[in-house]
Structure formats: structure tokens, C-alpha cells
Design a protein that fits this description.
Helix content of chain B: over 70%
Order of helices and strands of chain B: HHHHHH
Number of helices of chain A: 3
Number of strands of chain B: 0
Distance between the termini of chain B: 64 Å
Structural class of chain A: mainly alpha
Order of helices and strands of chain A: HHH
CATH architecture of chain A: Orthogonal Bundle
Strand content of chain B: under 5%
Shape of chain A: elongated
Radius of gyration of chain A: 16 Å
Largest sheet of chain A: none
Largest sheet of chain B: none
Oligomer: heterodimer
Helix content of chain A: over 70%
Largest interface: A-B, 52 and 55 residues
Shape of chain B: elongated
CATH class of chain A: Mainly Alpha
Distance between the termini of chain A: 59 Å
Structural class of chain B: mainly alpha
Number of domains of chain A: 1
Chain lengths: 93, 130
């Protein structure tokens, strides 16, 4: 089994990204104001996208890549909508 | 895990390096998001995960799939370009929204509109000079 180094580093990356998601979830729950929660949500979907990419490296399929692409697209739109809502009080003017 | 055993050793080493760098940088950004005190400090921390965190893991993915399939696999560049383009837009919108909310609530720690706006219509701004 010659892929030991790569499998171990992917496993360590899974653990590190999960700890990062826990940190962002704590900030999301604790965040004193609404903009803190939105920033935490933004970082949270980036981390989940990276976690899906490492799953894709581990399994060798491209399904995870497409899921990561969809997450990055929809996450951007939702964060922009939340920022507009924080600024104006409504999303579509 | 059988497909990863087909990789040559140099590709495994480089890909492991990039995966670990990306995950570590993302974790550092998350810890910064958790421990920094002010919102305007905290808004800088997640950009670590969206620049080198995404970049490292995407570089490793490009390398692994290109070596495995013996052809350049470049569709990960889509995610990289999209995240790199959209993250400054998102954070600028959020920063402006937070500044607007802080000003309307009269919080003293943020600069008020008079001190940061450029030359305005009244004559006092011209006598002060820029």
C-alpha cells in the first residue's frame, strides 16, 4: 500500500476542516450581532466546500466536485442577499 | 482507496503538502474568526480560508486527477476563480452594511460620516485642505 502518506494527510485535513467548522459554528451561535453571524456563515460554507473537495480526492469521483461548485455559487448569492438585507431592510428593491 | 495507490510518489508528496497547507490555513482563519475581538477585525480572518485554503486543496485536486487520468484536468479552476472573484465583493458589502448599522445606532467607535467623507459642498472642507 503505497498511498499511505496521501490517505493520512487527507484524513488529517478532514479533522482540521471539521475543527474549523466547529469554530465557525460557535461564532455563528455566539455572534453578538447579525453581521457576525453572516460572516461566520460565509466562512462556514467555504469550509464545507473544502471538506467536500477532500472527500472527492479520497473517493476519486467528480460528484463531490459538482456539489462543491453548487455550494460556492449558492453561498455567494445568499451572502450577498443577507448583506443587502442588513443594509437596506429588504433584498429586492 | 485503490485509485490513490496508482499515483507516483512525487505526486503523493506534493498533493499531501498542498492538502495539509490548505486545511491548516483554513483552520487558522477559523480560529481567528473565533478569537478576534471586534467585528472589523473578524471580517479579515475568513479570507485566509478563501484564498490559500481553497487554493491549496484545489491545487492538490488538480494534480491528483491530472496524474491519474494522464491529461490536464482543469475544471477545479472554476471554483478557484469564482471564490477569488466573489469573496472581496461579499466582504465589502458586509463591511459597508456593518458600518451603516453601527452609524445608525450611534456607536462611537466607528468613524462618523463627517470625518471620512472627502471634500463636500460646504466651504469648511475646502479651508481644511485634503
Amino acid at each position: 500500500m503505497s498511498a499511505t502518506i496521501l490517505i493520512w494527510s487527507v484524513t488529517i485535513a478532514h479533522v482540521l476542516l471539521a475543527v474549523a467548522m466547529v469554530c465557525q459554528a460557535i461564532r455563528f451561535i455566539r455572534g453578538p450581532r447579525a453581521q457576525d453571524r453572516v460572516v461566520a456563515f460565509d466562512a462556514f460554507y467555504i469550509s464545507s466546500m473544502l471538506l467536500l473537495l477532500t472527500f472527492g480526492i479520497r473517493t476519486g469521483t467528480t460528484l463531490y466536485f459538482e456539489a462543491a461548485l453548487v455550494i460556492s455559487l449558492i453561498g455567494f448569492v445568499s451572502t450577498v442577499a443577507l448583506a443587502k438585507f442588513l443594509m437596506r431592510g429588504e433584498v429586492i428593491e | 482507496m485503490t485509485h490513490l495507490a496508482d499515483l507516483p510518489a512525487w505526486a503523493q508528496l506534493i498533493a499531501s503538502f498542498f492538502i495539509l497547507i490548505g486545511a491548516l490555513v483554513t483552520l487558522i482563519g477559523a480560529i481567528g474568526l473565533l478569537t478576534l475581538r471586534d467585528f472589523y477585525d473578524r471580517i479579515h480572518a475568513p479570507t485566509l480560508g478563501s484564498t490559500w485554503g481553497t487554493g491549496g486543496i484545489l491545487l492538490a485536486s488538480i494534480l491528483i486527477f491530472s496524474v491519474l487520468q494522464s491529461r490536464p484536468v482543469l475544471h477545479e479552476v472554476l471554483i478557484a476563480v469564482f471564490v477569488t472573484v466573489t469573496m472581496p465583493v461579499v466582504l465589502m458589502l458586509l463591511g459597508r452594511a456593518a458600518l451603516y448599522r453601527d452609524r445608525t445606532e450611534g456607536i462611537e467607535t466607528v468613524p462618523s460620516i463627517e470625518t471620512v467623507s472627502g471634500p463636500s459642498d460646504d466651504t469648511s472642507a475646502e479651508t481644511d485642505g485634503k
